[in-house]
Design goal:
The chain is about 65% helix and about 0% strand. The chain has 7 helices and 2 strands; from the N terminus they run H-H-H-H-H-H-E-E-H. The mean pLDDT is about 85.
């Protein structure tokens, strides 16, 4: 983890640098620690580790057992209801909270399924960036002018996701 790496760097600094340079190096490491934040996904992994959740088959892509799937599904439904309620009540704080909770649940569910989140995210992001804005609502399958649509020749991300999962299952991540 990031904290372990920083701890090791601190030890190396103290052991191998003269005191005056060690002090400067420690300040630099502190600055890096404050500036380099881990991802939201890694935050949720830390949360799971703290509570001993989902570490049994960590990093091995799989569909979770039905009871875990149903638990997570109900969790999503609860947060979606809270988001709608917050909107109806015009409560921006609760609306914000519901969005953050949905992201937390999404990351947690992906972690529980052993999915390689960041590489998968990169695949989806690249595919989405190749879409284009709908000209009007008639062009959108969701009937909204803010939609983006798949242009002619657009390639779906599933083959690359399948390849990514197969690599992960064989023990080679990208």
């Amino acid at each position: 983890s990031r904290s372990t790496a920083l701890s090791l760097l601190y030890q190396l600094v103290l052991e191998f640098l003269p005191a005056e340079k060690a002090s400067m190096a420690r300040e630099a490491l502190d600055l890096i620690n404050r500036e380099v934040k881990q991802s939201n996904f890694d935050d949720v992994v830390d949360f799971h580790h703290k509570f001993g959740v989902g570490t049994e088959v960590e990093g091995v892509p799989h569909l979770p057992p039905l009871d875990i799937f149903n638990f997570r599904y109900r969790f999503f439904e609860e947060e979606l209801r809270e988001m709608r309620e917050a909107y109806v009540e015009k409560d921006l704080v609760k609306f914000f909270d519901a969005h953050l909770d949905l992201a937390y649940i999404t990351h947690g569910s992906a972690h529980l399924a052993g999915l390689p989140w960041q590489p998968g995210w990169n695949v989806i992001h690249r595919a989405n960036m190749k879409k284009r804005r709908a000209v009007d609502a008639n062009e959108s399958k969701r009937s909204h002018h803010l939609d983006v649509v798949k242009p002619e020749g657009w390639e779906p991300p599933e083959p690359k996701l399948r390849e990514l999962l197969n690599l992960q299952l064989r023990g080679r991540t990208t």
